[in-house]
Amino acid sequence: MKAAELRKLTAEELKTKLVEQQQELFNLRFRHATAQLENTSSMGDARRTIARIQTILKEKE
After folding, report:
1. Which of 20, 23, 34, 56 is 20 to 30 A from residue 48's alpha carbon, by CA?
2. CA distance 22 to 29
3. What are this entry's molecular-function GO terms?
């Protein structure tokens, strides 16, 4: 998601998205470890999305 889209969400929605993204990153790491992940750049995308969400949550505080 883009930062502009994330800024439109409430803090509760952002926290929900954060948990979802963290779970997705966890799953991607498992798939990478078992050599089932074809697109390894998706791990970086997930990390960047998590960072964006955390940054926007801090801005809203």
Report:
1. 34
2. 11
3. structural constituent of ribosome
Local structure of residue 9 (DSSP, 8 states)? S
* 20: CATH: 1.10.287.310
Burial of 21 (0-12, 13-18, 19+ CB in 10 A): buried
Structural domain for 12, as ranges: 3-60
CA distance 13 to 21: 12
Find out whether 46 and 21 touch, Cβ atoms under 8 Å. Answer: yes
Residue 50 structure tokens? 């998590």
Tally of structural domains, the chain: 1
Full-model pTM:
0.87
Token look-up 């779970």 returns 23
pLDDT digits (tens, 9 = 90+) for 8-35: 999 999 999 999 999 999 999 999 999 8
